[in-house]
Amino acid sequence: MKKIAGNPYLIKEDNDILIDSISLSNLLGRSKTPFFIFLENKIRDNVRTLTRVFKSLFDNVQVFYSFKANFLPEICKIIHSEGIGAELVGLPELKLALEIGFPPEKIIIGGPYLTKELIEMSVDKGVKEIIVYNIKYLKQIDYIAKKLNKIQNICLRIRSSKFESKLGIQLTNKSLIELVSFVKNYKNIKVTTILSHYTTQMNSLEQFNKNVKTLANAFHLLSGQGLNPMNINLGGGFPEATIMSEKQLEKLALNIKRQLVNYNLDRKNIYLEPGRYFVGDSGLIIAKIVNKTDNRWIFLDIGNHICPKFAKCSLRFYNASQINSPHKYKTSIGGIIPTDQDVLAKDYFFTKEFNEEEIVLITNVGAYTLTFSNRFPYGLPNIFLVKNKDVEQIFNTVIDHDFSLV
Ligand SMILES: Cc1ncc(COP(=O)(O)O)c(C=O)c1O
What we know:
The chain has 11 helices and 21 strands. By secondary structure, the protein is of the alpha/beta class. The chain folds into 2 domains: about 1-40 and about 280-395, Lyase, Ornithine Decarboxylase, Chain A, domain 1 (Beta Barrel); about 40-280, Alanine racemase (TIM Barrel, Alpha-Beta Barrel), CATH 3.20.20. Strand 11 (about 190-195), helix 8 and strand 12 (about 230-235) form a beta-alpha-beta unit. The protein is elongated and about 70 Å long. About 45% of the residues are buried. The protein binds pyridoxal-5'-phosphate. Pyridoxal-5'-phosphate binds next to helix 10.
């Protein structure tokens, strides 16, 4: 049994690929290419691994799935059924999370742009926290909370120390004075948490350390002004689970714990907002070679409109029609968009021979691909959810017109 891309749900079997307990040839009989497959069991494994690792070290950790990584209702339902909370950026996600049954006390919501409608619904439903990237929103949240006779908990997103980061609040003398005055005067808000999310796809302990340091500095500055948030939100940023092994994750969690002890922050409640780790390696694209050149370029019937660079996936490509052939010949892979910029991979190790109509399996496409996808005027892909031998079509291009949230 040979795993593909380190994924235990992708196994080479004879000349076929077993996707969980169903063969790729079976799935190819259900749809034209390109199409997506999501692996329910992989999502559940990932959720359980991350929670197990962090709960073994912290007795005060809470996990919120970052919906923006993959907001398909069926995916969010799986994560909900594992008892995880939700981290949301907008009203469509809030409506979806509530509809699925995420309890408001397990929802944190916010982003760089907060509409009046979003604030009203969040306060009215009693979400756990509204995340504020700009302190100008505190006035409006207080006003709405007062009108609704509520006290709204607030999480402040602190700008991380990453070069050129523009997101979040920069704690300067001026902003601190302003913040202190807001907190004193606005009686219907309460600052409970500070958040720092450094970046996505963090592969080094150093990046996680920098993130904790940002929070420690922020906490120091805030407590100097008499503000003492009870919770620390470390954001997300973990790579796909097949890229970061459980052992590495344990090492990372232990390192975070040590950092928090060093900074005297270990008694706080710890929040995490993983997106990619839960869903990244649960997603596959099945595509077809539609063209090739003499200088080892192949072109697929998919491109950056569905598998965008912005998604920062750890893409892996396999010639599924020759799955047992060595993949050790440098090949470049282009997409279907009529621009030279539509490159999926350059000098990627692929089979020696390749032909039009052959099937290509792309792994690690479960996070941010649909989020960042755009409407280039081609058809959208069908989407299937696989669990054991069961296959459910969760997006059907004939019936469903779009997977966007409204
Ligand atoms: C504030 C915040 N939290 C969590 C996430 C999820 O990140 P990831 O999918 O890398 O875990 C993001 C992603 O951009 C984010 O901006």
